[in-house]
Amino acid sequence: MFDLLKFQIHPDIKGIATMNGVPVDGAKITINSSFRGKEYAATYTTGSDGRFSFSEKTVFSLATVFLMQSNIFQSITIQYNHVKYLAWSTSKHEQGDDPNLTKLLTSLNCELTNPETDHINQPDSIHMNIISGIASWPTQ
């Protein structure tokens, strides 16, 4: 019964922060999410390997039962050497899981010297997201 009320704010997230190809130690990675007027945040500090991860975040909501439109806004920022970088920013408009978006979030490469760019993620007609930031990911 409770699984019917479960709503995924974000899936598991994994990535690496680098500068000029070298992993950054001590970077503060923050994920911020907003869903139906509530804010969610978590922070991770990288070690010498530059890697970071966040576990899946879910909440219980009646929006899942009534199929209400529910926008989720997400951003991942990196604070390093007193500079703040936008690694990832998107909004998700569909209630269901977007497997392609989930796949991207498990392999983020955040090269701090990259310029912020916009990517259109449109693997099919059901899911379409504009992703902004310095993050990139392996291509097929």
Write up this protein.
This protein has about 140 residues and is mainly beta. About 10% of the residues lie in helices and about 50% in strands. The protein has three helices and 13 strands; from the N terminus they run αβββββββαββαββββ. The strands form four sheets. Strands 2, 3, 6, 10 and 13 form a five-stranded mixed β-sheet that branches. Strands 5-4-8-9 form a four-stranded antiparallel β-sheet, with no helix packed on it. Strand 8 and strand 9 form a beta hairpin. The longest helix has 7 residues. The radius of gyration is 15 Å and the shape is globular.
Give a topology summary.
Blueprint: H1 2-5, E1 6-10, E2 13-19, E3 22-23, E4 28-35, E5 38-45, E6 51-54, E7 57-60, H2 63-66, E8 72-80, E9 83-92, H3 99-105, E10 108-111, E11 117-121, E12 129-133, E13 135-136
Parallel strand pairs: 2-10
Antiparallel strand pairs: 1-7, 2-3, 2-6, 4-5, 4-8, 8-9, 10-13, 11-12
Low-confidence runs of at least 5 consecutive residues: none
* Shape designation: globular
User: Strand fraction band?
Assistant: over 45%
Share of helical residues = 10-25%
Largest sheet: 5 strands, mixed
CATH homologous superfamily title: Immunoglobulins
Output mean pLDDT: 82
List the total number of helices. Answer: 3
CATH architecture: Sandwich
N/C terminus separation: 38 Å
Instruction: Give the tally of structural domains.
Output: 1
Rg estimate, integer Å: 15 Å
Q: Decide which structural class fits the backbone.
A: mainly beta
CATH topology: Immunoglobulin-like
CATH secondary-structure class: Mainly Beta
Count the E strands. 13
Order of helices and strands: HEEEEEEEHEEHEEEE
